[in-house]
Amino acid sequence: VSAKGRYWENGEWIETAPMEIMQVWDYPEVGPKDSYLLYHEEMESLVKHIKGLKRIRFFMTFGQSYLTHMKCLENVGMLGIEPVEHHGMKIVPIEFLKTLLPDPASLGPRTKGKTNIGIVAEGLKDGKKRRIYIYQVKDHEECYAEVKSQGVSYTTGVPAVIGAKLMVQGIWNGQGVFNMEQLDPDPFMDEMNTQGLPWNVIEMDV
Questions:
Q1: 201 by DSSP, 3-state: which?
Q2: d(CA 62, CA 150)
Q3: pLDDT tens digits, residue range 92-136?
């Protein structure tokens, strides 16, 4: 959150100040949320492997309370990653902060609400301009009831399981190292619908 943002457009990377670009996005089943442009390393491979790509950006939602707390902690040095002297010992501020915060695993039983993870893609399909929103919604409490973990862990773990299944079945194969966008997406998307992450598509105005 405190790092600079970065996105790719017209063949080059463009850097932004931290949290400089914000838009309010109306997420289905969740509602309007402040969404901030961040850098995400997965864009590096997408830029490399999706031919003809003109722009790719990554946004994530943050509540104002969270941002205020983060800014306060940053201002007093608690987000520092370099060791500092404290009563004759060396400590890393952000590691000390982690010690004070709850264990993420303990958050599962009290996390409420829903995740919404999606992508807006715009381009030409059969010679016509098209803009679609593919997204998936998961309820934290339903996830906890099923696997004793909240929705963020669920939506992280299930796609990895699907990928492993497709590799074992020989549907995704080849020699070397591959990123997901280099492989056939259809069997993966089919599995999403049967493995607890059903997705939806909304046609949007171009």
A1: strand
A2: 18
A3: 999 999 999 988 888 889 999 999 999 999 999 999 999 999 999
Say which residue the tokens 């996005």 belong to: 25
Q: Is the pLDDT of residue 167 over 90?
A: yes
Whether residue 144 contacts residue 106, with contact meaning beta carbons closer than 8 Å, is answered with no
194/29 Cα distance (integer angstroms): 20
Instruction: For Cα atoms 192, 197, 198, give the angle at the middle one, nearest 5 degrees.
Output: 80
Q: Measuring CA to CA, how many Å separate 97 from each of 69, 74, 83, 88?
A: 12, 11, 13, 19
Q: Look up residue 52 and give its two tokens.
A: 């003809």
State the chain's maximal CA–CA distance in angstroms: 68
**The model's pTM:** 0.88
Distance CA 155, CA 86 (A): 40
Cβ-Cβ contacts under 8 Å for 9 (sequence gap 6 or more): 54, 55, 56
Beta bridge partners of 22: 36
Measure the CA–CA gap between 108 and 12, rounded to whole angstroms.
40
What DSSP assignment string belongs to 136-199? EEEEHHHHHHHHSS-HHHHHHHHHHHHHHHHHHTTSS--SS---GGGS-HHHHHHHHHHTT--E
